[in-house]
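dude i think i finally got it to work??
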Amino acid sequence: MSGAARPPAGSYAVDTGTGRVGVVMGHEGPYVRLRPLGGGREWDCPPESLRTATPAERLRAATAYANARSRGEVP
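look at this
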């Protein structure tokens, strides 16, 4: 996903600037809109700062969300 690639909505990506894993929600101007796994506030990421999330990264993000939910930290 480096360069000017525009990943499709619904794909999983890593914002290399922050290290966060998100689901691609769409595109807004020159940016890609990402949302954390499990929901939450979307953020903008320049396409050159994205790469495809590995299966391990997707699992790690999903597990972190499930753990936070079990602790009552997220809905």
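Residues 20 and 45 are 11 Å apart (CA to CA).
im so relieved honestly
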